């Protein structure tokens, strides 16, 4: 467990999560209120943009991110939560 607001991810930690997830985009939350606040056009983002914004503000990281034995589970969709529970 980690509270990202007071202990943000480092670049190395985010890079390690990307290796498990396959892309920074998979880790990016398109529901972040910061998108509207900053007037961002996420449809034009590349991987460098997703990485940059995740590191700039914790709310750009889709949560929860659960890592179990080298498997990563991202988000709170019912199927994702069920899969994470099964991996435990």
How would you explain this protein's 3D organization?
By secondary structure, this protein is mainly α. It is 42% helix and 9% strand. It has a domain at 11-63. The protein contains four helices and two strands, in the order αααββα. Strands 1-2 form a two-stranded antiparallel ribbon. Strand 1 (65-68) and strand 2 (71-74) form a beta hairpin. The two termini are 15 Å apart.
Structure in a nutshell:
This protein is mainly α and 88 residues long. The chain has 4 helices and 2 strands; from the N terminus they run αααββα.
Note the main attributes of this structure.
single chain; 88 residues; mainly alpha; two-stranded antiparallel sheet; 2 strands
| Order of H and E elements | HHHEEH
Q: Which spans of ≥5 residues are poorly predicted at pLDDT below 50?
A: none
**Average pLDDT value?**
97
Radius of gyration: 13 Å
Tally the beta strands: 2
Q: How far do the termini sit from each other?
A: 15 Å
Task: Output the structural class.
Answer: mainly alpha
Strand content: 5-15%
Number of helices: 4
Globally, the shape reads globular
The major beta sheet can be summarized as: 2 strands, antiparallel
Percent helix among the residues?
40-55%
Query: What topology, given as strand order, has the largest sheet?
Result: 1-2
Task: Describe the SSE topology.
Blueprint (H helix, E strand, L loop, with lengths): L10 H11 L11 H6 L8 H10 L8 E4 L2 E4 L3 H10 L1
Antiparallel strand pairs: 1-2
């Amino acid at each position: 467990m980690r509270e990202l607001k007071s202990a943000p991810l480092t670049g190395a930690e985010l890079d390690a999560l990307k290796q498990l997830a396959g892309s920074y985009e998979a880790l990016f939350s398109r529901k972040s209120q910061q998108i509207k606040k900053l007037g961002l056009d996420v449809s034009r983002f590349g991987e460098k943009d997703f990485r940059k914004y995740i590191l700039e503000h914790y709310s750009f990281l889709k949560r929860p991110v659960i890592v179990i034995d080298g498997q990563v589970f991202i988000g709170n969709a019912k199927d994702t939560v069920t899969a994470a529970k099964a991996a435990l």
